[in-house]
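Chain X:
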Amino acid sequence: SGKLWGGRFVGSVDPIMEKFNASIAYDQRMWEADIQGSKAYSKGLEKAGLLTKAELGEILCGLDKVAEEWANGTFVQNPSDEDIHTANERRLKELIGETAGKLHTGRSRNDQVVTDLRLWMRGSCSALSAHLRTLLTTMVERAEAEKDVLFPGYTHLQRAQPIRWSHWILSGAIAGNPLGVDRELLRKELNFSAITLNSMDATSERDFVAEFLFWGSLCMTHLSKMAEDLIIYGTKEFSFVQLSDAYSTGSSLMPQKKNPDSLELIRSKVGRVFGRCAGLLMTLKGLPSTYNKDLQEDKEAVFEVFDTMNSVLQVATGIISTMKINKACMEEALSPDMLATDLAYYLVRKGMPFRRAHEASGKAVFMAETKKLALSQLSLTELQTISPLFTSDVSQVWNYANSVEQYQALGGTAQSSVDWQIQQLRGMLRTLPQ
């Protein structure tokens, strides 16, 4: 039958079950990791005296030929190939004969599955890390170049306080990176950091998969929030940013439309990643110890999240690097009522408790609204009817640059703080693997 198992079975597997059971359609992308693992294992067999040096050489040469076929696209799959492990071993046997059967000595496909997936994820996470590094570098460069631009900060989608545009960009640079999912396992030959402490846990443990999927979910959460902000900021009602044509589409009906499809797709793909993460956790929570076939679900989850993140990170980098900001519209959106908190802080610096200062500032806002004036248009005499602590220096409160500069604490929106954030992120980027 060509199966790695048999012996105790009579008859053949139902064709529908055969198709239902197979994973070669998606796990074939682990072909290189599977061959890498088999090479390492064959060396271990030779060291243990279970293979001769000649047999080892024969197996390694055969595996190189299998790898060459995968690499140049000439590998021919067989309908009996359940998965990548079956396919590679079947082809190896065709190339070198019965010696190939010795490769599986003392080895279970369950071992291969988890080892191959760890190896594949280690290499693939390096690619995601590189894309993430590029995105963060782009955000930091824009933050430094545009740190003099002020615009409204929003809470509840209501204008709150003036902030630096750079402060907003840097707030999106906290998604972290996906490295570190390959904590434990096997051989020096495979460059793993350690061996698993328990053989039962080794074949069933999928913490490294769950951590990768959770990282993807968390990273996509931050990217979705950034996308949502930019979608809003790009509307005609705001006009703070303008996306490049390269990352926009038009309408088949309305010629004036320029749609932020790239941002909307980033936002929409979050659900896909969340679903894969939740789905794997639901699978894991119902399993008894050691390997169960349910764990075959892990690879489709990993591959889909990797493919999604791989495209999203690159598109996000393109969006950030090419979008234009409209400084005039940003500054025009600033309004004196956003300085009401600063008015309260002014009174606090004069010695008034904050709760009373907050109330006094609220009364000033109410007075301005009643008189149909901007908050900054209230006269000193009018302000002094609220509190005698108001003096002529209150005029300094109505300066937006003064407003942002008072937030000197680390992480704030003052220029010195933004400069510090930029330096911190540059330092973090230097520590990431190239």
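Chain Y:
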Amino acid sequence: MLKHIDLGVDMRAGRRIKDALINYRNAVQALNVSSLETVVDHLLDSATQRAEGAQRAAAAALEQVPDLDSAGSPEELMLSYVSGEKMADRTDRALVTPWFKFLWETYRTVLDVLKNNSRLEGLYADAAARAANFCLTHQRATEFRRLCDMLRNHLSNLLRYRDQGGANRTDLAEPATWERYAGMRFEQLRTACALGLWAEAFRCVEDVQGLFAAAPRASHRARAALMSPFYAALTRIFARSESRLYNAYAWYRLFTFSRTQVKGLPAGDVATLASNVVLSALAIMPYEGDGRREGEGSVEAERALRMAGILGFTVVRRSDRPVLTRQALIADIERKGVLALTPAPVKAIWALLETEFDPLNICERVAPLLSQLDGVLPPPSSA
């Protein structure tokens, strides 16, 4: 089988490799999963080595050009004018692109062959992690979106047809299976944030929220361990989207959860988290313009309910009352003593903005306090 894989990689015969993997999976999944793991690892390693080798060959071809200032042959000049490509672009297109396309197709093939099979869950998760790392290493944003859509579709089909059963059907009611699938979604979330794909990161957040809703009771401890990175990711997403209200509530949830669930949280981390809660709450505009067009109110209300659910707040559908507000958050900060845990500059900023009224001098008085924040707010070590 390994020789068959080698020949398929040499020929870039993706369809034949997929057919061979399906037949081999059906033959060994009941008795010898480790053999299939060896074959899959060999396939991914071989395709990766060929793609990286093509990159090195393209770089070597460019280094062999004797004179970079030379205009080149007449044929090369004519080709560059017609196509608009430089020599490096043509070399990449001829040597590198075909192998990277094959490598990407190989990841898709492996994930499709291993999907929704309880005996192959570990292989499936490893392949998904390698595919995400490929997208991150080579900054392939489009392929990462397609990877997320593919994994999302696999999970959707798993949930849609879960009642049909089957000998090797993946069951999310099993704690180990649920933890593995949740870990995959968090890996997607981290990769999306690293690539700066904030819309895709939010879709990953919704995927995680759906898995949290379907979590079995026995996985309560594993679910709790994931909440801190979940809320930390939300703070980044909402900050990037300039959703100040939801960003402040995400910090508030992260602070509340960390204080109640994380044992031995250092005092410095508590102060940093509390300060982020206070400062993000103060950053919310105390009033908003009411220039919405007809029909936008219901859309905004629906979005607010959705965000409240993602942030873990109990949602009560009332058209006459907003779900999350600046006033409610400020009241919670005061009632639960969050302000008392912050450094002196943060307390002083709070006093200037919330308790005093000095509009003519407020900028002058706040500026030196803001300059002190970098020294008193180190990044948290555990959030």
